[in-house]
Every structure is written in structure tokens, then in C-alpha cells.
Amino acid sequence: MSDPLLSIRDVRKYFPIRQGLLQRTVGNVHAVDGVSFDIEAGEAVGLVGESGCGKSTLSRCVMRLIEPTSGKILYKGEDISGIPHGEYWRRVQMVFQDPRSSLNPRLTIGYSVGEPLIVRGASKEEVRSRVTALLETVGMNPEHFGRYPHEFSGGQRQRLLVSKALITDPEFIVLDEPTSSLDVSVQAKILNLLNKLKRERDLTYLFVSHDLSVIKHMCDRIVVMYVGKVMEAAPKNELFEETLHPYTRLLFDSIPKPGTRHEREMMGQEHIELPSNIDLPPGCRFCQRCPQAEERCSEEAPELVEVSPGHLVACHHAG
Amino acid sequence: MADFLLEIRRLRTYFYTYAGVVKALEGVNLRIHEGDIFGVVGETGCGKSVTAQSILRLVPNPGRIIEGEIIFKGRDLLRLSEEEMRREVRGKQIAATFQDPSTFLAPSHTIGEQLRDIIKANADDPKSFDGKTLTERVVQALDKVNLPDPERVAGQYPHELSGGMRQRSMIATGTSSTPSLFIADEATTFLDVTIGAQILRLFQEMNRRDGTTILIITHNLGIVGEICNRVAVMYAGQVVESCATDELFEEPMHPYTVGLLSAIPRLDREMEELEEIPGTIPNLIHPPEGCRFNPRCRHAMDVCREAQPGMFEVFEGHYVSCHLFDEEGEDNE
Amino acid sequence: MTMSQTEETGRFRELRYSFHLLLSNPVSTVGAVGVAFLFTVMILAPILATHDPIAINLTGRFLPPSGEHFFGTDHLGRDIYSRVVWGARISLSVGFITLIEATVIGTIIGLIAGYKGGWVDSVIMRITDVFLAFPSIILALAVAAALGRGLTSVMVALGITWWPLYARLIRGQTLSVREEQYIEGARLSGAGGLRIMLKHILPNCIAALIVQISMDVGFTILAAASMGFLGIGAQNPSPEWGLQCASGAKYLVYQWWISTFPGLAIFLSVISFNLLGDGLRDILDPRLRRG
Fold for domain A6-247+266-313? Predict the structure, then answer.
């Protein structure tokens, strides 16, 4: 069996907290605390979790916008820290969440979308023809090449970001909350477009979002993160039908769904806030909120184990 | 028919901007019964937030309420003086929370201080409170919104609290006087899912325990489906459908509602492709003639392009604003 | 598929709106008019002047304002009106050139400091602090001592004292722009530091720069005039306004017109640019824009 397209091996990213006149490091924010999983070519893997879970930090490590504190990321078997940035960013690209700030307001969209080509020395004609072709592919008017971002709606700007990600013909795309700021009807169009592009160009996606319904629709496999660690990872249907981790269970129960108009079973959750990533007690990250927590859970952090093919869980009660 | 707690009739609110007149609300009709958890749902530009602002008469410049009636407990709020609104209604009988509490909680005062001010302001005789009673009332208010360790929270500043706790504090400032109507405008939008769920549970508790009528304004149909008993769908400044929540999901009538429900990825079923409503949300400075949805509607007829439909009661309690239902129902405007 | 609200393209409409904002504020309209007037005088000096500004006429000394000499004559019989009119070119250009120097130097330094961060930033900022602490007059004296008197020295001295302000401004802008997502996007395109600084960050600093420049023009003119007044800058017989004020100082009681009119010219310039600057700041402040 060939290498997975992307392999994340025990990646950690800590951010130092500095205090005082001499800026001494007094502690670390454990944004990502030992995450491992693989992505096969052609898959769409969803990375889901709430604030502070580390999904955004992890996606930036995958994109090499930041360097992990420890651990390795392999692309097609090769350590990405050994691949020159220019080459890596030709094969791996990213679609950002767009509220206003993902496109430079002072530059034309033709430039913004075409920049990856411009930087690599393409001629003006080539840039223009490639960009206009892509604009058409994503359903926009190619004549708007010279316009500015503020002249477009949110949905259109999202399409522009998708064009920009595609212009170097990448194999792998990381999508960071690409539809979170969009209206439902606009979101539908973008998600349909993303699926179509994936099929037509044989792409692999890492889809990061807090919205489980979107992830379920778009992805084949789902990885659930909480406070820097993976709690559960499984193929989509199995995650929903055979949920093993209590946090995944809580996440599902918390999503407002029609037809469940009863007062929710809150699992004793009324007062609990999301924990910080700083003063981490030993043991399972979720034990303070977990209805199944035992003494063992607060002392010993559970390992991420494969309990059935493709289904990994980090919980003492699921092993 | 039973009396309504709040009835909005033919509400029109326009914004007079440099680029033109934005007709944000063009004849909004709503009826909320006492004890309802009523949802107003729609996408950007539909006017749901402007409706909430209009109820409280807090429409920001350059907006103005042009026409209509907002009848709350038998009184038309639009006919009251600003003084009366401030003294009797806002914060007392009708309270609200908005999506970003940070803009409404002063960063330089502790939660306790702000609550004290509000409790005193709402009291009939402000001087009757001594320090001890006030503190008790503050702690009570914070406890009612399920804040852990309310005494401690009272002494903290807004930035020291998490998003969920700030939202609860904001709700506490609104409910300290046990209002009859509580408006929650996108209250959980900026919160994480599990935290937002707690806030929704709180609303249900307020409704059950104190009998507070809750008006939930959101773009999230799931929220509406879960905690609201009645819902109104808004599009481009008008209510297009209004009915019991179950009916909305089981028998949506308005083409926009139908399209919207098919566009949302669902957890309970597999969807090959999401439904796309063609076109985009209209420009409210030059809205389409006739029914505002007609350019995007696959059922559009000639009459749709000429005249705005009235509100038709298709079944009991289920209202739709669409010419397709003209023959079947009576004109209930 | 576009979202334009009117038939005009977005940019044109914004320009029209900016103009509308500028003119709707009476204060900044006054400023704009004043500045327009000053530029007219600058450009049309040869036509507007009635006499040769440096022609000495010892028979017509100390004449009060009249139909022949609108602003009177000075101790050497020179027509003050013509001197003030021609002086506009000198005083205004010194102000502008100083600002250009300060902007160019400050921008380069600020961009580098803000973008690189770390120790580069710290070092540059400490150097900036040192320069900021220097009173411009002392520095100007030092420069004049080194390079000799004259307008060149003034421009060098003022440039040296003024650039730190711009470095700080640009650095601040750079720091905030650097966090925007489109900068990450630019990195992912493969853009290097130079391209990011020049193509992405700099255009986003223009608005703040314009505001700062328009507010500073008045003060640079004033500073140049002060140097002239102190005898460091322009030398006789140049019709520079500050120098004119200085030469007329001893006659202030009886032949008040010699200093007063150039003084008024300085006043008019400073105030016009300040008012215009206020107006520009309001235009460019996104929070104040509506519609």
C-alpha cells in the first residue's frame, strides 16, 4: 500500500507565555499536544472541534505557515520541512475563511488570484488567461479581473479564494472554515462547487470547521479534536452511528436540531466552560466535563488506539 | 382569538443613506403569544435584527420607522414618547441581548457594578435599596442565569470572562427585572456549540420558570427547530411564512422556505447535492417590483412581478405570503 | 453577478463621496479653499507680483501699504507684497521637500521594523527614540554649523528630525496589516518579504500617510520659517517668510507691515493645511463613513 498523501506524526505546537521585564517564559500554551493521523489521496478529511482545540493551529502547521514545536509532517512520504516552500505551496494550497480580510482591499482580484503565478515569473498574458479561465470555472464573470474585493459579495469573494487556491494546480487543499461566514443559501453553492472541483480535479481535502453538519456533508472521514488532542477519528458514518468518545457524543447532542424540542439533557453541563490550554492537569483533557469520568481518567491520559479498522479513540472506556 | 403579547402590523423601517434609501423593512407582520418561544429566522439583509431594533425603538441612524404599529400589551409602542419607552419598556418589560455582549458591557466596570446600576434604574424607588439588598439582588440575577460562583463573577470585569459567561451576564442585565418579553438577537452566533447549547437551555428555563416570552432571532434553522414553538421566516424585509415550528419543517409552503430547508446540510440524512436557490439576495435600495422573491422563484407568475402578495392563512395558524396560495386561503391582511 | 448598487463603478462613487464629505464640513472646506489659494499664488507668482522682490529702492523705504505697494515697502525699499508672493514658492517647497524626505526615509525604516519584528525592530525603534528626543532647532543649528547656512541645511535638518514620526506611523500600520489574513495568503502565493512590504503592506498605509502628511505640512512650513527667523535658513535677499519676519522685527512698532504680512502668510498656510488635514482625516476614517 502506498504512502498516505499526508501523514501527521505526533505534532505538537506550544506557544510560550512571556512575562516580566526580561520576557521570561513562564509557561506554554499547548495549542496542539501530540496529534497523529493520516490522509489518503482522494479523501476529504474533516477536522472538527471548538475554540482552543487546536484545529486552526494544526492546519497552519500542515500549510507550513508556522513550524511545529516537535513532531513530523510527511507529504507523500517526504518530510515537509525538507521541501522548499515554493515547491510545497505549488502542490498544497489553502482556502481561508473570508470575512473581509482574506483579500487585500487595495489590490485587484486579478492580481490577488494570480499572485502565485506572478511570483513564479509567469508573463502577464499567461496570468491573465489562467485567472480568467479559473474565474469561469468557479462561476464568476472573467471580465471582473480588474475589480476590487469590496465590489463583490461574500459568496463571490469565497469563490475568488477558491480560484486562488487552484491556480497552481495543487493536489491537496486545506480549507479553513470556508463557509462559516456565509449565508445558508450561499454556503450551499460554495459547498457544491467544492465537491464538483474535487471530483473533476481529483483533489484531496482537509476540511476544518466547527460545523458538524457541513463536515458530515463534505467529508469521508472525521477527526474530532479537543484542547489540543484527538479524541476520536473515524469514517463519517461510523462516527455518527458508533460514537465512542463522550466528547463526540456531547458535540452531537449540543448541535441544535429540529424535531428535538424537549428540554435538553445537559449531562450536567450547565456551568462548564471550555478549559484553557495552559494549566493542563495530567489525565484526560475531557475528564472534568465527562459524565463517565472515573479516578483513572484524571490521572492517566488515554492513548489514541484503533478499536476497529479506521476508528481511533482516546478514552479509557472505549478501549 | 387570544390576545397577543406583541403584534407588529405593517412595519416599515427605512435607512436614508448616501447611496439611496434602503428599504430594510417593508410591511412586517408578526404575532407573538404570551409564553411563546418565537423564532425569527432569515439570511443577511432579511431585516430580522432591524425588526428587533424597531421593537425597542433603537434603530440606529440613518434609519427611521416610517409606518406601522407595534402593539405590546395593548399599547402601540410607536406612539409612546421616548421618555415612556425608556422608563417603562426598555430593560423592564422588554429586554434584549445581542450577538456581541462586549459592545454592550462597559469594559471599565465590573459586572456587579453594571448590574447594580441597572437594578437601581429599574426600581420604582431607587433610594429604597441599601447596599446589602442590592448585592443580594445582583447575585440573584447572576444565579438565575446559571453562572457558577455568582459572587465572584460580580466582582469581575467583562474581559476576564469567557464568551459564554459574558453572554450570560448580558442576559442577566436584561432579566433582572423579569421582563415579559426577552429578545435574543443572534445570542449564540459567536459561541462554541457546546456553550451555545447551554445558553439555549437557559432560554428554555426562563420561559418555563418565569413565563418569559422569548423572541429568538437567528440565521440558524436548527436553533429554531429545537427550542421555538413558532417561527417566522423573513426575506428581504418581509415575513414570508409564519407558523408552528413542526409545520415549518414538515410542510414548508413558501418557495423560499422550501429552498432554504433543502440548502442546509442535515445531520439526519444524506444529501447528494445541496439545493441552490438561484440568484442572490436583492438590493434593498432598488428591490424587485412585486414579490421581492420573484426573480429567484421557479414558480414566479406574472402577478408576482406586479403586486406584492398579502399574508394568506393556508391552515389555521400557518400564514404564507405568496401568490401561489391566493386562491386557497383568505386574505388576512 | 456584481453587487454594484449604482451604475457607476465602486471606485468612482467612493471618490465622489469623499469629495462630498470634504465639502460638507465647513471647516475643511475653508482649509481646502485656503490651500487651493496658496497653490495658485505659488504657481502664478510671476504674474501676481507687482515688483521685483529683490530690487532695492533706497528712496522708497518704509512706505506704508498703498495702491502702489499693497503691503508697503521694507527697510530697503523692497515691495513686501511681491516678496510675500514670491516667498510662497520658497516656504511651501521647503515644507514639502522636508516632508518628502521624512516620508521616504521613515517609510522604508518603518516597513522594515514592522515587518521583521524581533531585534531588528527593537534596534530601529531605539534609534528612532533617540532622534525623536532631539529638539529640531538644536539639531538644525548643528547641521548649519556643519554644512553652512542656507535652505539646504534647513531641509536636511528638518528631514532628520521629522523622519522618526513617519517611521513610527508606518511601523504601526505595518504591525496591524501584518496580521491580516491576506498577508498569510500572500506568503502562500510564494511572495517574499520585499513583495509583501511593497505590494501588500505599503498600499494599506497610504491613507494614514496622507492624513499625517496633511497635518504636518503646516508645521514643516512653520518650522522652516522659524529657522529662517533664527537666521539659520534662507539668507538675504531671499524673500523667505521667516526671514522677512526677522528683518522686520526691529521695526515692529512703527513700520508694522514689514513683519506682519509675511507673518500672516505663515499663519494662513499653517491653518489652511491643518484644517484640510482634519477634513482628510475624517474622510479617510472608515468609521465616520456612512452609506
Answer: Rossmann fold (3.40.50)
